[in-house]
């Protein structure tokens, strides 16, 4: 998944970003609202983690404008304010959840999972397509009853494809979703990860199809 972390506390931002990246996610860090706006103009995110007190403005104004643009990207507010009125106000502005600083990373991860699960309209994290059962948040994959272990980037690539079966993803778009802006990577890396996933899916009725000149899509074979 791709996260945008808007946080001016360099130590906290680094710790959160490192934790997300350790789990194989992409995390772009914006120390202010101006940088956050630039990131949002050039790429899409699965979830935004938003601090309130920022050097160039109030995170609540950012959140309000975010929702007025009809952008439904989920937002979890990171706040030092524990008063009920503050929390209610942020939820009314369109926050999907909030977490009070200081927080434990396991709680933050759990809240991220819960928000993404609600947005997907799912009771649990597992997605079932054909004979494939995939839980990106738990990092588990079963193919025709076989349990498969995936490396981080393989897992995140499959997560993108499983979220939109039949949709064509170009190499540049996959690079954008899998790697942060400060990572230098060739589009050839996508071919490597696609090849690895195809080996894992061997014998399954789910396959990754190449659409010549356009990209890749996940397809389920007919009966």
State the low-pLDDT regions, or none: none
Count of alpha and pi helical runs: 8
Q: If classified by CATH, what would the architecture of the largest domain be? A: 3-Layer(aba) Sandwich
Report strand %. Answer: 15-25%
CATH homologous superfamily title of the largest domain = Response regulator
For the secondary structure, the number of strands is 13
- Cα-to-Cα separation, first versus last residue: 32 Å
SSE run: EHEHEEEHEHEHEEEEHHHEE
CATH class of the largest domain: Alpha Beta
Strand order of the largest sheet: 2-1-3-6-7
The rough form would be described as elongated
Radius of gyration: 18 Å
> What integer is the average pLDDT?
87
Give the count of structural domains: 2
Q: Mind describing the biggest β-sheet?
A: 5 strands, parallel
CATH topology type of the largest domain? Rossmann fold
User: Structural class of the helix and strand makeup?
Assistant: alpha/beta
Helix content: 40-55%
């Amino acid at each position: 998944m791709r996260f945008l972390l808007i946080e001016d506390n360099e130590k906290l931002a680094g710790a959160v970003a490192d934790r997300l990246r350790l789990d194989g996610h992409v995390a772009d860090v914006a120390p202010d609202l101006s940088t956050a706006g630039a990131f949002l103009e050039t790429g899409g995110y699965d979830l935004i983690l938003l601090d309130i007190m920022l050097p160039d403005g109030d995170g609540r104004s950012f959140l309000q404008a975010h929702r007025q643009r009809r952008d439904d990207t989920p937002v979890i507010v990171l706040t030092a304010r524990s008063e009920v009125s503050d929390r209610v106000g942020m939820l009314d502005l369109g926050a999907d959840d909030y977490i009070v600083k200081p927080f434990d990373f396991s709680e933050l991860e759990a809240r991220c999972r819960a928000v993404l699960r609600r947005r997907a309209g799912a009771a649990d994290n597992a997605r079932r397509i054909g004979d494939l059962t995939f839980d990106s948040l738990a990092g588990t994959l079963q193919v025709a009853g076989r349990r498969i272990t995936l490396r981080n980037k393989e897992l995140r690539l499959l997560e993108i494809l499983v979220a939109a079966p039949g949709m064509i993803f170009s190499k540049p778009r996959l690079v954008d979703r899998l790697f942060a802006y400060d990572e230098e990577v060739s589009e050839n890396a996508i071919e490597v990860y696609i090849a690895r996933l195809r080996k894992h899916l061997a014998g399954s009725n789910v396959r990754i199809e190449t659409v010549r000149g356009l990209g890749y899509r996940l397809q389920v074979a007919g009966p």
